[in-house]
């Protein structure tokens, strides 16, 4: 394949990955997948995983395309499933019977029921099927891949800090350190999570709602969890320790929002995959956002985090960091 063809394929896979964002988190417990059918350089149909995990993205796109799919190329973020389900046919079979000329896959499925079998079944049907590794597709599937590789949800830790690293005044007052734009962005990030967690102290002190209050996204409010060995209010779930996230059934993306004890506990356990640091241009001289999470030397602190995004939100700044090697398993 020439360079232009490869770059075009990468562009369509990135578009499918962006489309997959519409599925998150309503597709749980299934991953949010995106699919785009292209013919003669034009989009024929699109699809993404529906609420509850079915229909899958490929099924949606093929149904929308109908006979127009014949001779086209489908770009899909994850290898089409090959296993049987009472909830619907295997996507590898649907693709094999579609009349498509070509399939381009951005990420192979680590699920042993499909891994390699999906693409193999499509090729056996006489359809050209290629795996083109796509960073965009991997990122769009990060929660699913983390659960399959590490046996736990992907964890994002959010910190809203002053310039001197505080989350509250010495008196405990903390609402609000950041401005309206940063808070709205936080709600958008909540809407992408399956579950949101705070520490017991934060729950008792602030009685947070932890819902999504953005117009049109209210139905995407995540499950509410509290880090405690005690009880929780009605409508909340308890997590006795950070390590217990391995038992959070159906949760692919966990958003840890506060406070200092919960943040420190997750960092100490080595269970933070991504940091969202909202920094306000204020000095508080108050309560620090983090405690001691086990570093014994400065050398241990270096090389752990890689900045992947920085943006201005009104007067506040957001910095996003990925943990290096967090998905090795």
UniProtKB/TrEMBL annotation:
Function statement: Converts 2,5-diamino-6-(ribosylamino)-4(3h)-pyrimidinone 5'-phosphate into 5-amino-6-(ribosylamino)-2,4(1h,3h)-pyrimidinedione 5'-phosphate.
One annotated GO molecular function: metal ion binding
Cofactors: Zn(2+)
Keyword Magnesium in annotation: no
Cross-referenced NCBIfam families: eubact_ribD (TIGR00326)
Cofactor note: Binds 1 zinc ion.
Name recorded for this polypeptide: Riboflavin biosynthesis protein RibD
UniProt-listed Enzyme Commission number(s): 3.5.4.26, 1.1.1.193
Pathway: Cofactor biosynthesis; riboflavin biosynthesis; 5-amino-6-(D-ribitylamino)uracil from GTP: step 3/4; Cofactor biosynthesis; riboflavin biosynthesis; 5-amino-6-(D-ribitylamino)uracil from GTP: step 2/4
Originating species: Novosphingobium resinovorum
PANTHER family hit by this protein: 2,5-DIAMINO-6-RIBOSYLAMINO-4(3H)-PYRIMIDINONE 5'-PHOSPHATE REDUCTASE, DIHYDROFOLATE REDUCTASE FAMILY PROTEIN (AFU_ORTHOLOGUE AFUA_8G06820)
InterPro entries cross-referenced by the UniProt entry: CMP_dCMP_dom, Cytidine_deaminase-like, DHFR-like_dom_sf, Eubact_RibD, RibDG_C, Riboflavin_Biosynth_HTPR
Keywords: Hydrolase, Metal-binding, Multifunctional enzyme, NADP, Oxidoreductase, Plasmid, Riboflavin biosynthesis, Zinc
UniProt-annotated binding residues for Zn(2+): 56, 81, 91
Protein family: In the N-terminal section; belongs to the cytidine and deoxycytidylate deaminase family. In the C-terminal section; belongs to the HTP reductase family.
Residue ranges of domain CMP/dCMP-type deaminase in the record: 7-121
Residues the record marks as active site: 58 (proton donor)
Binding site for NADP(+): 160, 176, 202, 259-265
Positions annotated to bind substrate: 174, 190, 206, 210, 213, 257
Catalytic activity: 2,5-diamino-6-hydroxy-4-(5-phosphoribosylamino)-pyrimidine + H2O + H(+) = 5-amino-6-(5-phospho-D-ribosylamino)uracil + NH4(+); 5-amino-6-(5-phospho-D-ribitylamino)uracil + NADP(+) = 5-amino-6-(5-phospho-D-ribosylamino)uracil + NADPH + H(+)
